[in-house]
């Protein structure tokens, strides 16, 4: 029996077009963050919940590369650029 091969355009978003849902969710999270005290309240929460901050929040923001040769695993932390302007942090 011959395998089925689909021809023509595949369903979904065209290549290069940003995912609108992700953008919408990120904007909603940012509005919520700013509406609940922004950086000032986040710093207060982080001081009171250091373990949660370091294990649940910060680990999601630090980009990493994981490589393996079959015997060992190496994790490299990439240096991220600071995208937040200083004046935005003081609000």
Give an overview of the whole structure.
- The chain is mainly alpha-helical.
- The protein has a domain at about 25-80.
- Helix content is about 45%, strand content about 10%.
- The protein contains four helices and two strands, in the order H-H-H-E-E-H.
- It has helices at about 20-35, 40-50, 50-60, 85-90; strands spanning about 65-70, 75.
- The chain is flat and about 65 Å long.
- The N and C termini lie far apart (about 65 Å).
- Mean pLDDT is about 75; it is low at about 80-90.
Number of strands: 2
**Inertia-based shape:** flat
- Which structural class do you get from the secondary structure elements? mainly alpha
Return the string of H and E elements.
Answer: HHHEEH
Question: Regions with pLDDT < 50 over 5+ consecutive residues?
Answer: 82-91
Query: What level of helicity do the residues show?
Result: 40-55%
**Radius of gyration in whole Å, from Cα?**
21 Å
In spatial order, strands of the major sheet run 1-2
Q: How would a crystallographer describe the biggest sheet?
A: 2 strands, antiparallel
Beta content comes to 5-15%
What's the end-to-end separation, in Å? 66 Å
Give the mean pLDDT.
Answer: 76
Number of helical regions: 4
